[in-house]
Amino acid sequence: MSDAAHPPPSPQPGPDSALPDGISPVALWTAAAHAAEASRPGPYVNDPWAADFLHAAQFAGAPPGDGPVQRMLPDWAVVRSRFFDEYLLSAARSGCRQVVLLGAGLDTRAFRLDWPTGVHVFEVEQPAVLAFKEQVLNDTRPTCGRRTTVPADPAGSWATELLAAGFDVRRPTAWLAETVLYHLPPRTVEAIVATMTKLSAPGSTFGAECVNAGSAPSSFVTPFLDALASTGIHWHWQLAEPQRWWLQHGWEADVADLFTLPYVIERLSPYLPLLTEAAARCVFLTTGTVREERGR
Question: What is the CATH number of the domain that holds 116?
Fold first, then answer.
């Protein structure tokens, strides 16, 4: 990855032109948020490859529509990344030296976080996405002890590929499904979580963003969902009671009280006049630990 500035990327591809094979516009919206964050003093997320992904994809687009959610989304993406950065580092320092990024997309945490010694990061993702990513990363050395890509559909059957890549079911694991789950049908999510649970040794943890089923129909969120639907993107999996759902699937879960976190308050404070209570909780940033009797 070169630090030199790139020429401005071409306009966002229209409906008749394709992004690079397998690359989701959702991943590129997050990359755009990370790239913009790099220009801030004291960025909350330091991702020097984000602009390179945008350039390689010839992408300069933004989420459809111009409502309050769309205006807030780049800052939200940064806050979410920071939250899960801290979750993963805390889990690794507490003994989870095995990390699995489900639906890794353009995630660069294996390269940009200050990992403790001995962490092995696995990235489960479609082969085409991993190929695009490797082209941009260009043999960059990871900051974790070891990084292994696992070419497999994160919405499909990936356990065999993960085990073949060196995953050890005897070691505690920190799982992260940052945004992949709520784009999938509920039965697919249940199958993914069942696999995750089966492979988790005692002491394993998870992190995931979950859509709040009670807030999704609100006047704040609905226009955004309608705009997304016009591009073929949907929020299929929604939860009303995330702690109860995760408990039923083998995990003790907590939902973050975001507005107790200083960086959330600082970054999202300009949007507070727009946020009703429902709007402020339209998604849950959820973490948890595997129940001992369900672990291996």
Answer: 3.40.50.150
